[in-house]
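request received
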Amino acid sequence: MKGSNRVVDMLRDEAWFSRMVEDHLQSLYAFIHRRSMGLDNGLSSAEDILADTWAIAWQKRAQAPDEQSLESAWLYQIARHLLANHIRRTQTLRKHAATLDPEIVSTSNAESLHILDEEVKRIFALLSSGEKEVLALTLWEGLEPREIALVLNSTPNAVSLKLHKARKKISDYYEKESQSQ
Amino acid sequence: MSFDDFVARFKKHDPAASLETNLTPSQVAQQSMDREVSNVTPISTWTRKRKVISTVAAGLLVAGISGPFMSGAMTASGPERFVFGTSPEASGQMRSANESMLSSDMKIGLPYMGSYYIYESDIELSTQATSMMAYRIVPRDDAETIGRSVARSFGITNLKVSEYDQNSLEFASDDKFFNLYLSDSYTSLNYSDYTNDPWKECYQVIENPDGSTTSSGRNSDDVQECNPVVENLPSEAEAKRLAIDLMNSIGVNARNFKFEIWSDTAYVSVTATEYLDGRITPMSWNITYTSNSEVAWLYGSLTELEEISEYEVISETAALRRANELNVTRIENFKSDIGTNDLIDVEPTYSSEGDTATNEPGTIDGGSSEPNPGTTDEPSKPIDEPTFTFEPQIVHVTKIELTYETFWLADGSVVWLPTYQFFGYFDGEDKNEVYMLGSIVALIDDAIDLQSLYGQSISARLLD
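response:
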């Protein structure tokens, strides 16, 4: 076991990690920011979670995917866990316990997404938590189903089903809208 | 309008589209390699604080309400007063978001900038107090035993178990896969069976440069165009019956659940929500059936509950009052603390024409927005302190419902307590746009330590 760890350490050394940070720093920051805008401290929380994500990525580098194209999904997975912890630790208590702050609504990452366009927000609200998450990861992070599956610890098939459902719900909404006009 | 229009607008309004961190990759890499995750130092110590006004506004509404971690053990008959804290599990550990515990109708992105909320009821609220049972979630640490039991329910043999991390176990057999999460004292279950995936033909096998292959999803835009082949799809009634049988076989009492069924040409999806004493809980299951009534996907929680004791519950009228007192008290406390609150870091910005602060309207009043003719020749300099203004926003409550929600106690235990959920709409907006506004604990003042819950003393003033 120790031997295999040494091999990992050799392959995933500081140069490897520096390259990964260089490649993914901004996109990871954007990912976290989109999900932390509604949290207390906003950007400050995003930066703390960003720091934790990279620290964990370094500590758990042995678990990093071999395939470079899956690195961002792996990092999002770590960040998503940390966001969930952060939301639970700092806000879920308030939500469940007491607050009526409409901006504090859920421990789900997708539910904490901040959407500015009123109509998009209204339509997005029609979707389930899972559908929102999958759609956001597709449209904002530009991930494919197999990458999303890694982020969500799911399968590409389940992800595609959610995408299909989301697309159908949105299309149905527009169809009803056009019929009522 | 079409789905493509939605996509375009969604992308256009990306709140992080032009955002970049000031941190350099080399700085981040070095700091990360030097850090111990168990002893995380906030990144704010690495770098200067930012001047982001919108973030400050978001912080205002929640500042100062985090409760201190207080000790307090639960007795066999339950505590006289619940003392709240954060779960010890939450600190420094990676855990899965237990999505099955989430309310499905939570809404997102509601307005909050520069305002606080006053709740007014459009309906006649009850003044009748009542009582409800409180429940404790029994921690489970027998994931492998549970997993093997679940596997038997699915008829899985030759089960392989691999530890995923300290909070979950993965189980796999051929094309079947499931995992159990033990985080937060819940035991959540995710199951999938690739062989039953109606879209399995829509995926491509990609050959990697090293000769290995990867099963890849097709581009999401193509998914709708790929028509799955499905045979002998169960009826909605059959799917419900199958779901009940399956849940019972896994050890979940399906009689406590209410069922909703959603079907398409390729699958029938059953969602079961648990009710206790007629009240909705955060617990739900979802089972998706496809060809020949086989399960393609499932998620749920194998949480065990035990009764604590029955507690007095405030009336709907008192709940509304408690909500308003919370919001007003919180804002007042923030105003009094604002000079010393180090969470807030506001640096007024300056227009090029003079020395007038130009903060975001309606959020932070940094002074007059009109240039002062008498000072335009003087060099720019910061104003002393920005002042904060808040406008109350009326929220109309159209429905209040008693439910159960999850709380973490100071001793680390997890409980379900009676909670009022509020539904309504925002003043000046469409009455038909009803949101799930939020929730507030429903136990009487004497049964809860409000200070640990809110970080401040408030009361529902039950004797009014």
